[in-house]
Amino acid sequence: MMPTTAPYLGKDLVGLEHLSAAQIRAILDTAEPFKEISERPIKKVPVLRGKTIVNLFFEPSTRTRISFEFAEKRLSADTVNVAASGSSVVKGETLVDTARNLEAMRIDMVVIRHGSSGAARFLAERIPSNVINAGDGRHEHPTQGLLDMLTIRDKLGRLEGVRVCIVGDVLHSRVARSNIWGLTKLGAEVAVCGPPTLLPREIEALGVQVFTRVEEAIEWADVLNVLRLQLERMQGGYVPSLREYNRIFGVTQERVARAPRPLVIMHPGPMNRGVEIDSDVADGGQSVILNQVTNGVAVRMAVLYLLAGGAPERAEVAKHGE
Amino acid sequence: MSETGQLLMDERAVTRAVARMARELIERNQGVSRLSLLGIHRRGVQLADLVAEEIERAEGVRPPQGTLDITLYRDDLMAIGPRPIVGETRLPPEGVDGRAVVIVDDVLYTGRTVRAALDELADFGRPARIWLCVLVDRGGRELPIQPDVVGRVVEAGPEQRVDVLVPEIDGRLAVELVARTAPHGGGPAGDRVREAGGPDGAGGRERGERGDV
Asked: What pLDDT score does A90 carry?
């Protein structure tokens, strides 16, 4: 018989690495009914009424922050946005001090984006509020991984056996890491493709294939998830020039047209058109890039719903444990 | 399945009751014009199908149908532990504005599910009229909510559960009275949003789990 309650996710969502396949599947399944809420005339349900959520962004972000904010508001939460530039963070307050001050104002959840890997877990272990990682350094960006998985599942009807190749700067990418953890747990085959300088060493240990030629990746894959090439990588000496990168690794119409089967094209945004992806591919019929954005709101609503309110005794433990 | 209960209605009894409920709806609504049926997840959805079939048989017109999942409108959502799985809410393309909307559910108990359904409907629009149609009214209301069309009134105590079984989920069509077994935690009556309430021992049935978990 069908189960009637979702598996417990824990107090926080720090990454996909430590979630089980059942927990990840539960988030994706929960996102399905939440999609419909954004199509209603009144895009709001009273699930998180009276809950206060702080979006604590120590790094600039437009898409992720807005997506979280939409998700929170559509669940009727009260939201406060704290951006690093406008806060006492610039005055030297530590992450924990900032969070404890917010706690003192009686908040319920924190969504955190931070430049340091491990910042989300660090915070989660120190405050009783639910903590959701919206990207920490090179570590993970779990809701991006989840929305990518949901989008693939929507398009192809399954994740098991689907071949997904992540193309680009995998080395610095938390999106890549969350995708690799999540996809492999749900039975997809994952590969990465990029210049050797931008691929982590021993990436095969995560159970992924490596392609050094994008043409090979396209021949192999059902889905290409094209990562943004951070323009500052050029100063770091990882790639010689944008033109060179586009010539060798750019996902161009010409290359995509040679794929032996219909390819699904994804990009977590924001795109550098003409660098890692060409406009005619990004805007073409195989692109699901805007579906990713739509699904982002539904996935974040699902995560907020599944974390909120559950297991209050754990919150007590966290409160008294420190 | 679960423990066997006392049979209150067999398939023929349910079918007859549904046929009468359909006729009553048509009569009270003075026809099927602007009528829409919304089944409450899960077994209200199957019952709405049966009612719609009967209406079609009598009037030659099948009313638009939709489904309503009230989980996100529960009044105890933040008090309960594990997160309930959210079902599909799908309104008919006609919407609810100006319609005579019939909320269809299997069992009416505390009235909290119906309260949630009314709140959810209000977020979709302004029906001209809302009817409440249930197969079994088992008493035990905690809110001032009454049905308009009822298949059967059953006297059931808090230690008992009324199960409506439908072919799509349970393999047959029937109504049973079952003794509650091993209540999980045994919360206050207010916890029972789902009318039929009470988890069954097998932990399998959605209706049960929705109860006082």
From this structure: 59
Cβ neighbourhood burial of A291 (10 Å; 0-12, 13-18, 19+): middle
A296, A143 Cβ separation under 8 angstroms: yes
Q: What share of chain B is helix, strand, coil (3-state, %, to 5)?
A: 30, 25, 50
pLDDT for position A65: 96
Q: Which residues of A touch B73 (CB under 8 A)?
A: 45-46
Residue A264: helix, strand or coil by DSSP? strand
**Chain B CA closest to residue A10:** B82
A·B CB contacts under 8 A: 73
Tokens of A214: 């994008």
Residues of B in contact with A130 (CB under 8 A): none
ipTM for the predicted complex: 0.83
Which positions ≥6 away from B112 have C-beta within 8 Å? B74, B75, B76, B142, B143, B190, B192, B193
| b/e burial code for range A163-200 (CB count within 10 A of at least 16 → b) | bbbbbbbbbbbbbbbbbbbbbbbbebbbbbbbbeebbb
- What's chain A's length in residues? 322
DSSP E strand boundaries for B154-204? 160-165, 174-179
Q: Which amino acid is at A239?
A: V
Residue A7: list chain B partners with CB under 8 A: 82
pTM, full prediction: 0.88
Give the containing element (helix H, strand E) for A135.
Answer: strand A130-136
